[in-house]
User: Fold these one by one.
Assistant:
Number 1:
Amino acid sequence: MSSLKTETHRAASPRLGRHLTRLSALVSSLLHSDSVLLHYSCAVIGVVLMTILRYELNPVLHDRAPFTLFFIAVVFSAWIGGVGSGAVTVLLSAIAVWYFFIPPTNSFTSAKSTDTGTLIVFLGVGILISMIGEAQRRSRERVEEARRETHSILESIADGFFAIDRDDNLIYVNQAAGHLTGRASAGMSARKWQEVFAEILGGEAEDRFCATRSQQASLEYQNFVSAESRWFHIKLYPADKGGLAVYFQDITVTKMAQEALRDSEQKLATTLRSIGDAVITTDKSGCITFLNPVAERLTGWSLAEAVGRSLQEVFVIVSEQSREPVEDPVAKVIQTRSVQGLASDTLLLSRNGEEYPIDDSAAPIYSGADMIGIVLVFRDFTARRQEIRALQESEERFRVLAEAMPQFVWVADLEGILQYLNQRWTDYTGQTLEQTGPHTQESVIHPEDAPEMYSRWNDSRASGADYEFEFRCRSASDGIYRWFLARSIPVKDSDGTILRWVGTSTNIDAQKRAEDEIISLNTRLHLTVYESSHRIKNQFQTLAATVDMALLDGGEEVPAAALRRVGAQIRTLSVLQDMLTLESKADTGGVLQTLSSRALLTKVLEAMKQAPYGERIAYKVAEVELSVKAGTALALIMNETVTNALKHGKQGVEVTLEVEGDMGTLEICDDGPGFPADFDPDTSANTGLELIQVLASHDLGGTVRYENREQGGGRVAVSFPL
């Protein structure tokens, strides 16, 4: 029987353990649940279960201690959900007890006054229990939050971490530890640390663990894993109940950096001894710790003599102008903790009596956030100063020359960015060097010239060839575009490498306009000579015809009337030649500047009236002052049109010059057949018409209209500004 009970107990123990485990998990889930509905559901269920249990025990308990069992529900609800859930349990329990278990049952009335007191006591105690449960719940939450934060921190750090109990069993391993060992941290719990971390912690790890436990003091050391060529830094901390907390970090990179630092320091020391600049280092109080050979030569102090001395004793500097001591740059660095430099006229007084113009800079040396010393770098500036002075003198000569030149003078870098513009550019365009750029230049360069100008400039920069281009540039004073010739050549060093571009822009507007005027004058001269030749030939033909007719009519004797017509033709020719002579005088600086329109045209018309059929001419000429050029052009136009009108007309020719405002209009009308329907003065191969068009548009700046009159005949109207 005893053995049977033992076997039964052994069989029941695992089942009981499983049930307790499940119950513990359920309770834990309820404790850590944030669901309000679940908490209040537990309160209701607890009241229902206690009601059923009390009802089952009612035959034994009767009406004694009706609230006792319900305290269990209150404690459970308050423990799970805090004061809210506990208060609901208290309220529901009070209702259930009052209705079901206090006589008379199934009613909310009571026959005893003591029942009311018992109810009040229950409510008070129940609320107190709920408040205690709330405090415990919050305490659990804080503990759980701290546990989660600790776990989060341990999982987020880059160091490996694990904790062991007094029996060397692993109880926690973070992910970094698993990563450093190349194993999953999740499968390491409950194993011995020697199985996982023995190689990383080293052969003496167990002795160090024992020392940490016995002395209850932290311990750290480094271990090299030769198989993997890795260094680890390990820290051991004692924990409760004989446990240990172990941090370890892969410091292979740090070790390599330290080794590289040692190599770098050695290389730096070699470099400082070999560079051409002088170098002095001091500690943070300004006492010298190092001089390189150049500093030894310039100061006159050897390294052995200078070490430990103050900088002011070894590095003696004064102003070249005043010979007064210059402020110690190291003292300024110590005060400001920033890089400091010397004035440009600083002299170093060597221990051996030599003087050196120097430039230098002093900078703080930091170790982390702490300044541990100062480094002073300086050089003999004698040769460089001479070069700078020569360069400054050269630049000054260039600026004086550039500002004295009448052209725009400019300097650009390899990218075409302007570095210098003389004052001529600013005076003409209104743009300073700072205001002048690719976009602002477009506002002063003529839109028709800008694309080709920039294209050629880019081609020259790319090829290194000389640049030349004619362009129009707008003046800021009057807004007029004038012609300029831009030229630029590259400035090269001794190796042929282009350093910069220097260029000029010369005003060639007068030259361009003179060229245009010469072309125009040549054209007009050609037409005038041609027309004059044509006109003279016609006049001589007319004279010849008149003479021939007179001979036919009069035999050997020429009538006086015929001779008069010949004379009229000669006078007309003379007037035309006089007008050409007047135009020539006006164009070559003669004293005649203006002509009376009435006097000029009347003289021509009166001369033409002496020619055959000239008596048919009628005219009305308004008075206005004309330039010699305009008057000549107008007379030539009138002579050509009147001659044609006399040739084609029947009875009369009307000539009118009218002036209205600042416009003048010359009209010649005849009563002939008029102009053909397909007449086009631009395409008609007629020298006289071409002359009329050129004179009207170029010399008068006006227009010509050819039209037929309603009453018959043709009209030629020349409109021009006065």
Number 2:
Amino acid sequence: MAQSSWRLGGWLARAAALMILGGEDIALAQPHGVGEDGVAAATTVAVAATPGRDWQRAVALPGWMAVVTDGVAAERKNEPREPAVAADGSVEVSLRDTLRYTLENNLNLRVAGYTPRLSAEDIAARQAIFDPAFTFTLDLLKSTSPSVGVLSGAEVLTRKEYQWNFGYGGLLGPGTRYTVGFANARTVSNSSFNSVNPANDANLSFAVSQPLLRNFGFGVTKAEIRIATTHKQQADEGFRAEVIDTVAQTINAYWGLHESIEARGVAEKGVALAEELLNINRTRVQVGTMAPLDISQAEAQVSDARLRLLTARDLVRDTEDRLRLSVGVSATSRLWDKPIRPVDMPSLDEVKVDVNDAIAEAYRHRPELKQSTLNLDIDAVRLEVAKSQLKPGLNLAASLGTAGVGGPQVLRDGLGGPVIGIIPGGYGDALADAFGFDFRTWHLGLTFDLPLHNTAAEAQHAAAVLSMQRDKDAVENLKLTIAAEVRKAVRNVQTNRERVDLARITREYHEKSLDAERKKFDHGLSTNFEVLTQQNDFITASEQEVVARTLYKRALVELQKASGTLLETYDVAFDAVTP
């Protein structure tokens, strides 16, 4: 089976939409993974099409959406993105087209798509705690001071010092902090007691610290990252819920427009029947077989029927606007100001639903339940951190340092006497000493601390336990709510399906009654009033049948939404990938 995959984004960064244009034989698609472009945190929408459709096309949409489509017939490669205009000036759209336009253009989805992207950026921000840091400092010091004694080495003591230091450090998963330092200094002094002048110092240092009890472990160190990742998953589910609501809204708007067009047809039929009866009455008045008062009744019926038709026409325009709003039609689209005509007919096949299976499906697919369950993952992380804070502190610290000195060594005749020679030397000697580890200093130590009253940590732990229990109860309560919603939705489907049959039977009865009454009227065995009554009953029954069909379709949508299978039913499959 050929497949079509769409990326639908927030951090998702890609967006999804249906790409089958007017396809009929559509089968259920399975979720796809991340595509060849390697976009992380994508949400995939898949549409399965009829076998034999094997070409691919890519469409870049503004800002947040990129669509990659397989599975559309080769003969439709050049198919326009906009629907065609029919001969009567209307725009014919299938439900599948309408859903595709909605997923491409709906601004609510576009806005909702930013939330997962923002959540993904929060993950990156939290991961920054493991980013190593490089430091560099450069200092210059010059001092002049008066002599305080013969041991100062000069009457006016001057000293210049240049320092350039490098550092590198960071944090590792278990909570280990490490630093590497390289410190350098060059000192020039006029003191006669400095035997190395100028003096070059080089110092190399390594240090690590590791918590062994409190704050130990990958779980604690990465706690905020784990929480941010879970928030990202919740954002994905929130975006999925927005897609579900939008798809349901569009489907209901589509069938609502279909209903209003059918209702307009019923109103037009009512006008035709009323005008036909009026013409018959006028003929009978002219030949003297009917009183003029009966014409007034027929004329009033025509006016009432025309008033119903005006209302029905306004309702069509209103429902067209509701569909445009749900789709997100722009002013440049053909759907903006042209009449919209749905081409799909509502299926009235009876749907058998097992309540327990529907509830189980809802538990697996409802995004709000997944969001609520993910709260337990966050609670588990916070409880792990709180347990760590209850432990005493035991920290291991270790360091290793080396030092080197280099520079010209001044030889004097006695202490502070005249210079009698210089032994060459420089910065290279200091480096050789430092990196040769000739002069080493090391340290190894443990630090233990035990709070006598660890009140804050105990309160934090108690709050974490309570939060987890609260969220567990919230999950169970939400399951009860979902189960009640599913049961109600199943009952509504069954009730509205029966209403369709009853409305059809009622309409057929009134249609036959009207036909019989018209025949009696033609033979002078019925009155104008009786015909008008039967005519009104027939029009009312026809309107109720139209409403019953639409209510059944809406009940099915609500059941699919309540059971969490709406997207799968209409071949929209999510596959959110967390980075």
Number 3:
Amino acid sequence: MPRAITRRFKCCSQIDSTVSIWFQTKGLGITTFKESGIHVKRIHVSDESCDESLLSLTAHSSSYSGRMLNLFAPDSKESFSFISLQSAENANGSRSAVLDIDGRGTITSQGGAVFGGDSGLTVTHRTNIAALSLSKTSSIAGAEIIIPAGTTYLELTSDGIASANLLKFSKEFTDQLRTGHVLVVANYDEDSTTGVTDLAPGAVMMLIYDGARWVGVQAAQTVSKTLTDIRELTAANDLSIGNITLGVGRLASWVLRPGRLVLSSEGGVLSSSEHLTYSKGVLSSPSIKAKRLLTNLDVLGNEVRNAKIIDANIHATDLFIEGRSGIAYFDGKNGRLSSSKDVSFDEDGNLHLSSLRGTLNARGQEIRDASIVNSTIAGLQKLRIEDSLDVGGDAVLNANVHVAKSLSVSGAVIGAGPYIDSSDARLKTNINNISSPTALSQVLAMQAVYYNLKSDVSGARQIGWIADHVESNVPELVYTDASGFKGVAYARACVLAAEAVKDLHAKNMQLENLVRQLQSQMEAFGAR
């Protein structure tokens, strides 16, 4: 039997005389002369050994313009396999789909697809279902990222390390590379990529291999009134939206640093400066140039330098004039705030005057720790000395001088008036009389001496008492200073002298009375 007779042929519908069915070595042949073609219910053709096509459709007429094959299926919402090309049965008796087209036109291919010709690949969709979907390959960023074979969409995730990301193809990828290969790379790392493509952080690029090199797909111009549901928009080059308003809720930049103020530089490009920052309500800038200030300026205790303030009130705790030292004052000639080195304050707040011309009016305030050299103080109404007063020359005081504590004089004290101690009874208490005999005995006990003072370089001879001897007899006349040196209140010694004279006067009166009695007795005796 011829080889073609061994093939199985099943036709479940009737075929009329306009149809010619014949067999040949290459398979089954069917010829029809009816315009409506052949209508059959089911055709099943199989061959276990033939190496030729089991089904071949040929249009012999050069003017043929119809469809070579029409497949119709009932309208159904359920997905079903419309055309299925399956592999041969395996050892388990099962088959796997090599190419499958369901009732909605979705094509599933296990071996990929190759599109040629001038049209290339055109993908459209009529519903909200994605028309083109690429399988994602995720990889963590690193110093070197190898792209495996079969990758169409590479998503690069962050590795948390600041380092460059070098993209390289695996050998298997390069071996399988064909013209028209599409690769999408999304860089979600904080650093840019190099190698296959240079992508900034957050950028997404589609690459197409043209047979010699990878070419990045540039964004096409799009005219639309509204863009909705846009998750991310990345431009490879500068993007111009024209002279229109762009309204956004939040605007972020990959370049601008946190805390810096956004500035408009040359060409309207937004940029920032490391010297101008804003944080927690505080604006920081090394310098500010303002033509007009309409409200209060609070610098929070910081310095304001090289400022020109016109027609304004200044309320400041500290006012610093750079390059100046001394006391600041307003010059009456030009109204400028200036300073003089002749007048200054030290770190302790002391006022230093190199010269003073005119009258110093302290308005009732105290002048402390003052050193007045080669000067005359006139019209002094009150001088209070808390510690010591050192007068290098003559001091002429035309008014009362009150010394609250001791007054030490190394030289002579000369006065035209009397030296007076306060002695009002209203100022005294615990008053006791000094007996005249006691006063006389105390005066007789004190030994007057001649002496020289060790501190007196003139060698002048002095007279007086020794305070140490007087203290043992009359301690009330002795004064001891803070250094332990003793002195004698000579003026108050006259009190003892007066009481001693009274005692001598009483004794003298007794003697005079005794003499008169003796004279009377002698006169009476002579008269006899």
Number 4:
Amino acid sequence: MRVCVIDDDEIFHFIISRQIAMVSDDVELMSFLNSAEALKFLTANVGDDNKMPDLILLDILMPEVNGLDLAKQLKKVMRKEIPVCFITSSLYAPMLDKVKRSPLFYKLLIKPIQFEQLEELFDDTQAVVS
């Protein structure tokens, strides 16, 4: 399974990569520290299923282009639907409600992400993409 992590926090990338390695040794991880890099890569590879992720972990609160806006842009260019798991450390209810109404919404995880949550996410995603 290919997992794309889009988050502006380098420490989160370090932690989540270690957690993912503990959950499965069959995950190809692609990491982006901002929305622009991720959008450029995903747009350039939209027709190549071998390069597109099976799951996107997308931070909501990022500078420049936030996760919700990026999801809207991705929805316009993607040829196949890719599950997007939004991630955040915020508990601000109006924002979380807005996230759940996003057209690409699959799941929402609150940081710090627990190992068990990641296991469940991967199990559920495998069932969806298989």
